[in-house]
Structure formats: structure tokens, C-alpha cells
């Protein structure tokens, strides 16, 4: 697996028994997996009593490195030898490698399910509505005299079982012309691609 220098540095710090004793290491690895699987991002996951003596910046860096490594491993369906090799390259000893792999096996199917639930299809536009708004003054009582368009796109998300949702935004005349031009270019490109 190819890992960035930042991830490698975080994993090397995690492998250091002076910074993370075996118990703290074990808790951090478990927290890394659980934070990936949690429905709500919770900053308190790193507020465990085991982490009180660890520098918070280093702790967050190691947590990020561990979650990145976990996601890469699951994404590539890494086996034990691949994971062991990568962890040995960042100075993990055999005991930490075994502990990491056991936790990896415990949570792997849940992380695979999470990754497979991430949609690959962009939302499909079903309908569009717009309204012209003309601002005469801004909040500071200065004359503005500019039109803006309030656009509402009704989109269908394939990843959510076809659920409908509105995407609302405001734009100026120039921005609207740019958007229309880009949509026309996209439609022409799609038409050309289907004719090949």
C-alpha cells in the first residue's frame, strides 16, 4: 500500500512504546475503527482516560493516520501479509501488528459495508424552478440595484434509494449564464460520447 509521509509519520509515532504503551495503543486502534463506523462525528472519542498523558496534537495525528491506514487496507482488501508488511515498515513490533490485525478482522466487514454505501452516482436533476429577485439596498442601506436569481433544483439521489431533495442557491446574471453554458457543454459532451 502506498501511504503518504504524514500517515507514515503518524503510524511511526503510534508504534513508539514510549508515546503509546500497549494498552493506550489498543484503545486508540479500537477508537479509530469505532469513529469510522459512528453515525455522528464525535470529538469526544479521543477524550478517553488512557489518552490524558499523550499530547493532543500528536494523538489526533496518530488517530488520523490509523483511520487512513484502515480505510486504505479495507479499500484494497489487504490481507494479513500486506498489512503486516506495511506496519513493519513503520516500525510496528510483532505484538502491535497482531493486535492491529485482530481488531482489523473484527471490524473489516462493517467498514466494507460503510465504504460500499458511499454513492458513486451524482444526483440526477428532475426539475428546476427559478425566481428573479431584485435587491435595491443591502443591509447597510447602500443602493445595490442588482438582480439575482434564486434557483431550486429538484434532484433524485440514486444512493439513497431514489430519494428526492431540493438544492437551492442564488446567483447573479453572469453566474447563471456561466452555469447554463457549462450545462450546454456537458450535454454536448455527453451526446458525443454516446455516439461513439
Please state the structural category: alpha+beta
Mean pLDDT comes to 87
Number of helices: 6
**Shape estimate:** elongated
Identify the strand order in the major beta sheet: 1-2-3
Head-to-tail CA distance between termini: 36 Å
Estimate nothing, just give the exact number of structural domains.
2
Radius of gyration: 25 Å
Secondary-structure element order, N to C: HHHHHEEEH
Strand content: 15-25%
Low-confidence runs (pLDDT<50, min 5 residues)? Answer: none
Could you characterize what this model shows?
With 196 residues, this protein is an alpha+beta fold. It has 2 domains: 5-116, no CATH class; 121-172, no CATH class. Helix content is 53%, strand content 19%. The chain is built from 6 helices and 3 strands, in the order αααααβββα. 14% of the residues are buried. The mean pLDDT is 87. InterPro entries: COMM, COMMD3. Residues 124-194 form the COMM domain.
Descriptive labels:
196 residues, COMMD3, elongated, COMM, alpha+beta, single chain, COMM domain-containing protein 3, 2 domains
What's a quick, concise take on this entry?
By secondary structure, this protein is of the alpha+beta class. It has helices at residues 5-15, 22-37, 56-75, 80-89, 94-116, 173-195, and strands spanning 124-137, 143-157, 163-171.
List the helices and strands and how they pair.
Blueprint: H1 5-15, H2 22-37, H3 56-75, H4 80-89, H5 94-116, E1 124-137, E2 143-157, E3 163-171, H6 173-195
Antiparallel strand pairs: 1-2, 2-3
Helix pairs in contact: 1-3, 2-3, 2-5, 3-5, 4-5
Amino acid at each position: 500500500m502506498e501511504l503518504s509521509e504524514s500517515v507514515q509519520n503518524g503510524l511511526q509515532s503510534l508504534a513508539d512504546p514510549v508515546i503509546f504503551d500497549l494498552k493506550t495503543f489498543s484503545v486508540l486502534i479500537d477508537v479509530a475503527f469505532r469513529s469510522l463506523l459512528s453515525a455522528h462525528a464525535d470529538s469526544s472519542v479521543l477524550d478517553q482516560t488512557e489518552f490524558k498523558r499523550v499530547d493532543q496534537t500528536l494523538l489526533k495525528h496518530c488517530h488520523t493516520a490509523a483511520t487512513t491506514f484502515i480505510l486504505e487496507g479495507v479499500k484494497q482488501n489487504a490481507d494479513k501479509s500486506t498489512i503486516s508488511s506495511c506496519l513493519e515498515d513503520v516500525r510496528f513490533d510483532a505484538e502491535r501488528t497482531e493486535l492491529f490485525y485482530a481488531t482489523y478482522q473484527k471490524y473489516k466487514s462493517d467498514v466494507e459495508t460503510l465504504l460500499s454505501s458511499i454513492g458513486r452516482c451524482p444526483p440526477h436533476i428532475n426539475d428546476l424552478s427559478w425566481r428573479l429577485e431584485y435587491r435595491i439596498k443591502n443591509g447597510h442601506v447602500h443602493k445595490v440595484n442588482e438582480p439575482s436569481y434564486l434557483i431550486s433544483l429538484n434532484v433524485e439521489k440514486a444512493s439513497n434509494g431514489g430519494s428526492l431533495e431540493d438544492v437551492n442557491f442564488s446567483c447573479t446574471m453572469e453566474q447563471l449564464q456561466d452555469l447554463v453554458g457549462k450545462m450546454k457543454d456537458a450535454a454536448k459532451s455527453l451526446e458525443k460520447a454516446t455516439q461513439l
